[in-house]
Each structure stands twice: as C-alpha cells, then as structure tokens.
Amino acid sequence: MTTEANLGDGFLPVERLLHRGIGICIGSDSNVRIDPFEELRELDGIARRQAGRRDVLTVDALLSIGSDEGAASLGLEAWPEIAIDAAHPQLRGVGEPLSALVAGCSADVVVRSG
Q1: Per-residue pLDDT tens digits for 11-48
Q2: Nearest Cα residue to 98 out of 57, 59, 64, 44
Q3: CA 97, CA 84: separation in Å to the nearest integer?
Q4: Which residue in 17, 65, 84, 87 is a FRET match for 104, CA 20 to 30 A apart?
Q5: How far apart are alpha carbons 6 and 33 in whole angstroms?
Q6: Whole-number Å distance between alpha carbons of 26 and 1
Q7: How many whole angstroms separate alpha carbon 110 and alpha carbon 20?
Q8: What dihedral do alpha carbons 77, 29, 1, 11 form, nearest 10°?
Q9: What distance in Å separates the CA atoms of residue 104 and residue 38, rounded to the nearest whole number?
Q10: Full 3-state SS string of the chain
Q11: Those residues with Cβ within 8 angstroms of residue 111's Cβ, 6 or more apart along the chain or in another chain
Q12: Maximal CA-CA distance, the chain
C-alpha cells in the first residue's frame, strides 16, 4: 500500500468498497521493510483524505483489514496469532493498546507469531 501510494496509484476508493461489502486487505511490494501497522495507517490516511473527515475506518475495522480480511484474501481461514510486547517503549503508558498499534506503533512491538 505505501509503495503503491508513493507511485500515486494506491488511492483506492476505500469507503465505496466498504459500502459495497468488498473486503480490503493490505500488503507491500517492498522487500526492504514490511510493516503492517504502517500499511494500516496509510490506508486510514487514504480514506480520510478521500472522505474529508475522520472516522471513516474504526480501529476494529483497520485491525480486521490487517488480519481476518487479509487472510481471507489469500484463501486462509486466519493468520497465526501474534503476541504484542505490552512493555515495549512504543506502548508504555498507553491506555488503549489496540488504538496505539494502529495510530503509531511499528511492527517492532510484535514479539512472537503463531
């Protein structure tokens, strides 16, 4: 998503797709850095810019796009579960960790997957 946005062709009509019940997933064609939280923020930013308002995508919707919908797009029932380091500096003192994951954390907060 971020590399596509950099090329100017990653601006999909997010809200229209959601209203039509079309699933959205994220991804990257970069082999240098893959950060799903960064990809979710880019998708959220695209949706905000298109709609001209906040709250187009909820935190739950973004996390679903980054997990359930992404897995489904590849024909998987689910991704392996991950664990988040709640003591990571990016999450220290945060009251709502799921919101923080989407709003500003990097994939460095993931300590283990499936």
Answers
A1: 778 888 889 988 888 877 766 777 889 989 989 998 99
A2: 59
A3: 9
A4: 17
A5: 14
A6: 6
A7: 33
A8: -120
A9: 8
A10: CHHHHHHCCCCCCHHHHHHCCCCCCCCCCCCCCCCHHHHHHHHHHHHHHHHCCCCCCCHHHHHHHHCHHHHHHCCCCCCCCEEECCCCCCCCCCCCHHHHHHHHCCHHHEEEEC
A11: 83, 84, 85
A12: 39
Under a CB-based contact definition with an 8 Å cutoff, are residues 34 and 99 in contact? no
- Note the residue count of the chain: 114
Q: Residue type for 44, please?
A: D
pLDDT at 108: 92
